[in-house]
Design goal:
heterodimer, A: 515 residues, Rossmann fold, 3 domains, six-stranded mixed sheet, 17 helices, globular, B: 384 residues, ABC transporter involved in vitamin B12 uptake, BtuC, 2 domains, two-stranded antiparallel ribbon
């Protein structure tokens, strides 16, 4: 019985949605005690496949087996009974509950009518010791870091004695240090006999931790490979269907005149009493990509909001194209040639209940191209969005009339990027433009940023990804606790040195103006 | 490309039909509950009473129909008022207060200033707009929830208007003999909305072209919401305020404008009612807010905030309200109609649920079909 090797098998799974075949005859076999990566581009059907395993969707056809026996998973409770647990990309935690309360939520141990948390506390402590999952059981979830929230989610699964652990893009929200920690935890779990399904599109992470990898492309099963016998290049080729260029292809920058000049900008924080951005000055020239690097939460968000007009600054000046726009409205800044790819695509980037075409004109609906006497030219909007969809390869179920909410994250991001780049701005402010995207899309977006630069436009990139910072930018500014603490040339520096600046261990005086 | 747009249209239409279907399910269940209540009160006459409610205005042709039309016009306006604010993510519970102010505007310009009807209507609109703008300003600039402000301004509006009209018996508009405002017919006939022969047709006194004015305004509101950049901005604010700000839309301005327009629509509603001479304002008994304002909420809900749907929802609500009035008072209270409406309104909250259920039923049917074809396919595969 060779089937006994596998703890979970998903055989010939097909799942259809209106207008789209999300999974087309996909087979996934998970061995006991292995870390099995599931790799695919955005919209390749990874999340759908996992949702089927977790009981959120029913497959149109196909069979799921556990330990060789066929099972039906009608809802997450069934999945739990089969010892399948999942850490979702967006955590499912009650913010105002403590870590311990979140872990026991749903299976609270009780004595009569009263909770008895003592046993639970001991079990959680034992588990967190065994697997190296450091948490403070009494801290409120709203007060702890994203990394600790994730560890809480993992403890939730372990507390329920789950054997099969699904991680849905677990590293998307973590800092580099937290990612390293998570990799260690995953290896620990596998060593203790847990079987792990690891959904991701970050090839480095797959190469580092997984034993095997199953690749999906556009809903179809491409193959399963042993990580030992493969390379990053081969994996990405299987995923995208062509060779992928990891090194960003670009000529040396030829900076021109200054487009953006920021003088002594200070922005108050909404979280605490101190200023989030302190006395920041620098300039951005035509034909260069300036990158603001830093660990999340060091004032980058507030800086971008003040630059684009979403927040007010208390001190300083912004000179854009020679004009003082310190007090200009968001619309005026946008009109004068500033584009903004926002950090949070759901909060700022899209009106999720609008259709794709309505979102495509979000920054330009008032333009004469799309309206006459206050009436929207429906056919012009349709035509324009169809062009953008084609040109930027935005995939969706129903084309221009797809509701944005129903699109995959990567395609939502592509839609925003299409909209912002197509405005042909003098300055493109891109905040983590590749967050949560696959290598194919990242390659494309990076080439678009470089193309903007080569057209003589200025690009201001804000990124947390070290690879992106090193590969794409022409000049790196490091932001630490609201201040610019270093200016680096990506060709002359190393990741290690950059890390020192980002952690605040090293700093230098940065000139306010570069010519 | 032609093909795809055709397909898109099909999807649009079918989702529209679904919405109508869901609202119809609510109505049917509401009516059945009404029937059960009638049976509980008096089983012998239940069916007779129920048929009177169902027939509505048609029970007493043609007068009843005229009455329904006269009642529908203001109801369309308050329904539009609530629906319009919903589109911007605001709950305009202040339609009653805006309606009250609209009534004052219409009556003052008609009875005291003796202006022609369209000027009076304009005054009603402006008075209502002012009362709508206030909660909007509080919401936009002081972050005070519009529901709280609107409820307070409902009562402020009601008592202020009553006091202005009554003025301790000496009010210019107050007729001591009837304890109501003077009738337009006797005081200022030129302020009456013209009836274009409708009163003769239906043998009524107050069936005017108000209903047509309301329908035209509903169509205009539909166009504004769905076809203009202004509507695009309003809806963007309603769906996602942050994204609207990011797109350079002035969200504060839009909140104030949305509430102002909602108020104006309610004000027009009052104008259409009082300038048609359906009734006179009674400042002594009117310690309760006009029901017309609150009934706009169920109308908007039943119509899923679609301005065209508001026309039909308002027609339906006044249809059974008038029908309720024809119940034999020996056995039943006319408020039975209100109970039925109340049940329907309650069920309106489930419209989305019904919509989901209908969708699921369709999907299940399709799935069964697919499963059949698939099992036969699989059978083939196994045979191979």
């Amino acid at each position: 019985m060779e089937n006994n090797d596998y703890i979970i098998e998903m055989l010939n799974i097909t799942k259809e949605f209106p207008g789209i075949k999300a999974n087309d005859n996909v087979t996934l076999q998970l061995r006991k005690g292995e870390i099995h990566a599931l790799l695919g581009e955005n919209g390749a059907g990874k999340s759908t496949l996992m949702s089927i395993l977790f009981g959120l969707y029913q497959p149109t056809s196909g069979v799921i087996k556990k330990n060789g026996k066929e099972v039906k998973i009608n809802n997450p409770n069934d999945a739990n009974d089969l010892n399948i647990g999942m850490v979702h990309q967006h955590f499912k935690l009650v913010e105002c509950f403590s870590v311990l309360d979140n872990i026991i939520l749903g299976i609270e141990p009780a004595k009569g009518l009263f909770l008895s948390k003592k046993g639970a506390r001991e079990k959680v402590a034992a588990l967190s010791d065994k697997y190296g999952l450091k948490v403070d059981p009494d801290a409120l979830v709203s007060d702890i870091t994203v990394g600790m929230q994730q560890r809480t989610e993992i403890l939730k699964m372990l507390y329920r004695d789950n054997e099969i652990l699904i991680f849905d893009e677990p590293t998307a929200v973590l800092t580099p240090q937290e990612i390293e920690e998570l990799m260690k935890i995953m290896k620990n779990l596998a060593r203790e006999g847990k079987s792990i399904l690891f959904i991701t599109h970050k090839l480095n992470e797959i190469m580092e931790v997984s034993d095997r990898c199953t690749i999906l492309r556009k809903g179809k099963y491409i193959g399963t490979v042993n990580i030992k016998d493969t390379t990053k290049e081969e994996l990405s080729k299987m995923m995208v269907g062509r060779d992928v260029n990891f090194k960003v292809d670009k000529k040396p920058a030829k900076p021109g005149e200054t487009v953006l000049k920021i003088e002594n900008m200070t922005v108050p924080s909404k979280m605490h009493k101190n200023n989030a951005v302190k006395n920041v000055s620098f300039n951005v020239r035509r034909g260069e990509i300036v990158c603001i690097a830093g660990i999340d939460g060091n004032g980058q968000t507030e800086f971008v909001h003040a630059l684009t007009g979403l927040e007010k600054m208390t001190e300083g000046k912004i000179i854009f194209d020679g004009k003082d726009i310190t007090d200009a409205s968001i619309r005026e800044r946008s009109k004068s040639g500033m584009s903004h790819i926002p950090e949070d695509r759901h909060k700022h980037g899209l009106v999720l209940d609008y259709t794709l075409e309505q979102n495509m004109v979000l920054q330009r609906y008032w333009d004469d191209e799309f309206q006459k006497n206050g009436f929207i030219k429906q056919s012009a909007v349709r035509k324009y969005s169809q062009r953008l969809i084609e040109q930027y390869d935005v995939r969706s179920g129903q084309g221009p009339i797809t509701i944005a909410r129903s699109m995959s994250g990567g395609n939502q991001q592509k839609a925003i990027i299409a909209r912002e780049i197509d405005k042909n701005p003098d300055l493109l402010v891109a905040v983590q433009p590749t967050r949560g995207l696959d290598v194919g899309a990242i390659e494309y977006i990076h080439s678009q940023l470089v193309a903007q630069r080569d057209k003589g436009k200025a690009v201001l990139l804000v990124s947390l990804e070290l690879d992106e910072v090193m590969n794409v930018s022409d000049r790196i500014l490091v932001m630490y606790e609201g201040e610019i603490v270093g200016q680096l040339d990506p060709d002359k520096t190393t990741v290690e040195e950059l890390g020192l600046y980002m952690a605040g261990a090293k700093r230098e005086k940065v000139p306010a103006q570069v010519n | 490309m032609d093909n795809s747009t055709k397909k898109n249209k099909k999807i649009d239409i079918s989702s529209g039909i679904l919405s109508v279907l869901a609202s119809l399910i609510c109505i049917i269940i509401g009516l059945l509950v009404g029937l059960v209540i009638l049976y509980c009160i008096n089983s012998e006459n239940a069916l007779d009473g129920f048929s009177r409610i169902l027939k509505g205005g048609f029970y007493l042709k043609p007068k009843g129909i005229g009455t329904v039309l006269a009642q529908t016009a203001p109801l369309i306006m308050t329904g539009l008022s609530v629906a319009f604010a919903f589109k911007t993510g605001l709950f305009n519970i202040g339609a009653a207060g805006q309606y009250t102010l609209g009534a004052l505007g219409a009556l003052y310009f008609a009875l005291v200033l003796k202006m022609p009807w369209f000027v009076c209507l304009l005054a009603a609109m402006l008075f209502g707009a002012l009362w709508g703008a206030i909660p909007g300003i509080f919401k936009a600039y002081f972050n005070v929830n519009e529901v709280i402000t609107a409820i307070m301004f409902n009562w402020i509006g009601l008592y202020a208007v009553n006091e202005i009209i009554y003025k301790g018996v000496i009010g210019d508009m107050y007729d001591m003999k009837t304890t109501k405002t003077y009738t337009l017919r006797s005081t200022s006939p030129s302020s009456m909305i013209p009836d274009m022969g409708l009163n003769n047709l239906f043998k009524t006194k107050s069936t005017t072209i108000a209903i047509f004015i309301a329908i035209i305004i509903a169509i205009v509101v539909y166009i504004v919401i769905n076809k203009t950049t202004f509507g695009y901005e309003l809806k963007a604010c309603g769906h996602n305020k942050e994204a609207a700000r990011y797109a350079g839309i002035n969200d504060k301005k839009n909140i104030v404008l949305s509430m102002t327009i909602a108020g104006a629509l309610s004000g027009i509603g009052a104008g259409l009612y009082y300038l048609s001479g359906v009734a006179e304002w009674n400042p002594q008994v009117s310690t309760a807010l006009p029901a017309m304002g609150f009934n706009g909420i169920p109308v908007a809900l039943l119509a899923l905030s679609n301005p065209i749907g508001v026309i039909f929802a308002a027609l339906f609500v006044s249809h059974i309200t008038v029908g309720g009035g024809y119940l034999p008072t020996k056995y039943f209270q006319p408020e039975i109609a209100d109970v039925i409406i109340a049940v329907i309104i309650y069920l309106c909250a489930f419209v989305m649920l019904f919509k989901g259920m209908v969708l699921e039923a369709i999907a299940n049917k399709k799935k069964k079909k697919d499963a059949q074809t698939q099992t036969s396919d699989m059978g083939k595969g196994a045979a191979e």
